[in-house]
Write a structure and sequence with these properties.
single chain; 237 residues; alpha+beta; 4-stranded mixed β-sheet; 7 helices; 39% helix; elongated
């Protein structure tokens, strides 16, 4: 093998990996290029790999060819009986010898929460009038020896002036609970993707289509670069 690891070493290490993650509660999805021809029932390594999955009560869900050689190498693995994966689409983005695999997961989106917030419209303050009122206040004329009394006066008068120029207002906002893996950078990339959606249409040139899929794969790579930080522990990738 290219990385000098034998299949036997992989099976031992992969079994250890499964033992560690399967004790965790929650959803489980394992994705990747395993380089076993699981479409060929007569392939001894593929059969051993599938038997290993079965022994851990796991199922491999990709049935189509994922490589230009015609074999199924790129796999999606979940717990047997789980309905986490609703559909799998395999197609050629024309930028690799492997097919692209899109997996739809039936993961519930957190419900939005209504939150009441209080705020002041500080940007609407007339700075000149504010300064005039501040200059006329006892803050600028009071002579106190006690620091605590002076501090109380400062807070009381400043709050009163602020209430005149920018009274406290309240409103209810809808707060959407985010997902651990959906970072600000991914949000920006998702917005950019909208302008490239035309690239997936049949009439788009191969160059434009390639640009789109390179963009999508870069986003995917960013998501999985640090899974321990960006992916919730309830979903293992």
């Amino acid at each position: 093998m290219k990385n000098r690891l034998t299949p036997e070493t992989f099976f031992i290490e992969f079994a250890t990996f499964l033992e560690e993650i399967l004790i965790s509660a929650g959803n489980l999805v394992i994705l990747g290029d395993f380089n076993f021809h699981v479409d060929n029932p007569n392939n001894p390594l593929a059969s051993k790999f599938l038997n290993l999955l079965e022994s851990f009560n796991l199922s491999q869900l990709v049935s189509a060819s994922t490589h230009q050689s015609g074999h199924t190498l790129d796999l999606v693995i979940t717990r047997s009986g789980d309905s986490l994966v609703s559909s799998i689409d395999v197609f050629n983005p024309a930028i690799s010898d492997h097919e692209a695999i899109f997996v739809n997961l039936t993961v519930d989106k957190p419900e939005p929460v209504n939150k009441c917030i209080r705020y002041r419209c500080l940007k609407k303050i007339d700075f000149s009038k504010f300064c005039d009122d501040l200059g006329k206040s006892p803050i600028c004329t009071a002579k106190m020896a006690n620091v605590n009394d002076l501090s109380s006066l400062y807070n009381r008068e400043l709050e009163s002036i602020l209430d005149d120029h920018a009274p406290i207002k309240s409103k209810t906002i809808v707060k959407h609970i985010g997902c651990d893996w959906y970072t600000d950078e991914l949000g920006d990339q998702n917005a950019k993707k909208g302008s490239l959606n035309v690239s997936t249409k049949p009439q788009a040139s191969p160059l434009i289509r390639n640009k789109f899929w390179i963009f999508v794969m870069n986003c995917t790579s960013h998501t999985l670069r640090h899974p321990s930080q960006q992916v919730s522990k309830s979903v293992w990738l």
